[in-house]
């Protein structure tokens, strides 16, 4: 079994060279949620030459639309969204300094190339485990696009959020590797 290492969000991009597809990490720090609708607004703002509501340099975006918080909790269920829906937006954000993305599922070749080009990382969270993931979230604040409801952009503080490196800055891709290993086993 591989070692599970701790990383802070603010150092994730700078330390991306230490990560390889298949590595398991525990992430602590600030993460921003953004899904399809928020990404469309990000693109529109950038097209208009305006600033985004989040600082991109080294930031980590979690593709999630959390449910409302039950009493006594900062957030409700907060599982990952299928990342491929953000593929048309991700290369641009990575080129502008985004350090990492969290979601579920395979990414396009264009996104994988942008991860390598920008020395970033794509991390997978366990799908279907949103109720468990919310236990790692210690605070939640809506910071943009409140009218989008669960798809508004939120600033989360996570502690020891368990993730798997899916795409690393060397071109490693856990999905391609998994298919190759499966075919060898047959």
TrEMBL record:
<comment type="similarity">
    <text>Belongs to the class-I fumarase family.</text>
</comment>
<protein>
    <submittedName>
        <fullName>Hydrolyase, tartrate beta subunit/fumarate domain protein, Fe-S type</fullName>
    </submittedName>
</protein>
<dbReference type="InterPro" id="IPR004647">
    <property type="entry name" value="Fe-S_hydro-lyase_TtdB-typ_cat"/>
</dbReference>
<dbReference type="InterPro" id="IPR036660">
    <property type="entry name" value="Fe-S_hydroAse_TtdB_cat_sf"/>
</dbReference>
<feature type="domain" description="Fe-S hydro-lyase tartrate dehydratase beta-type catalytic">
    <location>
        <begin position="10"/>
        <end position="177"/>
    </location>
</feature>
<dbReference type="GO" id="GO:0016836">
    <property type="term" value="F:hydro-lyase activity"/>
</dbReference>
<keyword id="KW-0456">Lyase</keyword>
<dbReference type="Pfam" id="PF05683">
    <property type="entry name" value="Fumerase_C"/>
</dbReference>
């Amino acid at each position: 079994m591989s070692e599970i290492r701790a990383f802070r969000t603010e150092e994730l991009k700078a330390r991306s060279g230490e990560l390889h597809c298949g590595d398991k990490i525990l992430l602590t720090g600030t993460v921003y949620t953004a899904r399809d609708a928020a990404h469309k607004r990000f693109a529109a703002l950038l097209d208009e030459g305006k600033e985004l509501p989040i600082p991109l340099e080294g930031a980590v975006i979690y593709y999630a639309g959390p449910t409302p918080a039950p009493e006594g909790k900062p957030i409700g269920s907060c599982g990952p969204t299928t990342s491929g829906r953000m593929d048309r937006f991700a290369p641009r954000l990575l080129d502008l300094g985004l350090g990492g993305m969290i979601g579920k599922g395979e990414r396009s070749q264009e996104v994988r190339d942008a991860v390598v080009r920008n020395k970033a990382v794509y991390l997978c969270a366990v799908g279907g485990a949103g109720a468990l993931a919310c236990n790692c979230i210690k605070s939640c604040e809506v910071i943009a696009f409140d009218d989008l409801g669960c798809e508004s952009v939120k600033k989360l503080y996570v502690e020891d959020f368990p993730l798997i490196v899916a795409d690393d800055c060397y071109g490693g891709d856990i999905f391609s590797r998994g298919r190759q290993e499966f075919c060898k086993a047959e």
